[in-house]
From TrEMBL:
It is a multi-pass membrane protein. One of its GO terms (molecular function) is transmembrane transporter activity. It holds the Pfam family BPD_transp_2. The chain crosses the membrane at residues 7-27, 34-55, 67-89, 96-118, 152-171, 201-220, 281-300. This is Simple sugar transport system permease protein. It is found in: Cell membrane. Its main location: membrane. One of its GO terms (cellular component) is plasma membrane. The lineage of its organism: Bacteria, Bacillati, Bacillota, Bacilli, Bacillales. It comes from Anoxybacillus mongoliensis. Keywords: Cell membrane, Membrane, Sugar transport, Transmembrane, Transmembrane helix, Transport.
Length: 317
């Protein structure tokens, strides 16, 4: 049994990491009152940018390359998310339509550039990635150490730590109070001197930054290249994790770990005795089936921020 857990748990954690980053980005955006269906497209931009940067600069930066690629992906996706912010906040467009447009634009633009730069439908394979590590001291703990803190990727552990940081920021800081205020009652927040549009712009750009990190990590650790199928539903799973987690950072992390576990079974299932006879196709559809079940059957009462999806017009109720 321990051997099985040592296969499943580390795999689940690193599959969950991109979902955690992206879901936390979604929490920022939707807590401010802006629906962000475009998380999938922002992950695509992050994956594309991360892989292209890695392939271009691997010789110059060596082992630093994947970290720098992650930072560049964060910046590019954050800037890309500005289009959604302008449409949803300044132009008061339908936020769902704007998010869907971001998804199509991101995929079309990235594939066009891949075709133009590489002359084929996908990039080359990334050769310099994140190294697996054992967490000092923690990895030596009997039973738990080998399962949770050994043979893992540092970004996976950073994602879990970030969930607690985001919880603290949203619930324990003045910035977080303002963010929640503009998502619940923007007119009251405006009356208190909070710049609603500014807070929402910051939140949407933070969602872009975190989704870009998520996409970059997914492409660098899991797919190792970029093509039309690199990000195939992970952004929507992150969105589902955010809703399943009831717009709470720690809830979103827990839901992302659950979906990561389902994704890991589709990859490592054949190495697990009681799953090796299950047809692969069932394991592949498992993450998406569990996503639907989680949202329809087990979520319970989940109250979205009251002003979610509603453009704010100053002075208008």
């Amino acid at each position: 049994m321990l051997n099985i857990l040592e296969i499943i748990i580390p795999s689940a954690i690193f599959f969950a990491a991109p979902l955690i980053f992206t879901a936390l980005g979604g929490v920022f955006s939707e807590r401010s009152g802006v629906v962000n269906i475009g998380l999938e497209g922002l992950m695509v931009i992050g994956a594309f940018t991360g892989v292209v940067f890695n392939l271009t600069f691997a010789d110059q930066f060596g082992q630093l390359t994947p970290w720098l690629a992650m930072l560049v992906a964060m910046v590019v996706a954050s800037i890309f998310s500005l289009m959604h912010a302008v449409a949803a906040i300044s132009l008061r467009a339908d936020q769902v339509v704007s998010g869907v447009a971001i998804n199509f634009l991101a995929l079309g633009l990235s594939l066009f550039l891949v075709k133009m730069w590489y002359g084929k439908g996908q990039t080359d394979q990334v050769q310099v990635g994140f190294d697996k590590i054992d967490i000092p001291i923690l990895s030596k703990i009997p039973v738990i150490g080998p399962i949770l803190f050994s043979n893992g990727y540092l970004p996976s552990y950073l994602a879990i730590v970030l969930a607690f940081v985001v919880w603290y920021v949203i619930y324990k800081t003045p910035f977080g109070l303002r963010l929640r205020a503009v998502g619940e009652h923007p007119m009251a927040a405006d009356t208190m001197g909070i710049n609603v549009a500014k807070m929402r712009y910051i939140a949407v750009m933070l969602s872009g930054a975190l989704a870009g990190i998520g996409g970059s990590i997914y492409a660098t650790i899991i797919s190792r290249d970029f093509s039309h199928a690199t990000i195939s539903g992970q952004g929507f799973m992150a969105l589902a994790a955010m809703i399943f987690g009831k717009w709470h950072p720690l809830g979103a992390m827990g839901a992302a770990l659950f979906f990561g576990f389902a994704q890991s079974l589709s990859i490592v299932g054949q190495a697990i005795p009681f799953l090796k006879n299950v047809p692969t196709v069932y394991l592949l559809i498992l993450p998406y089936a569990l996503t639907i079940l989680a949202l329809t059957g087990f979520i319970g009462r989940a109250d979205a921020p009251k002003a979610l999806g509603t453009p704010y017009v100053k002075g208008k109720r």
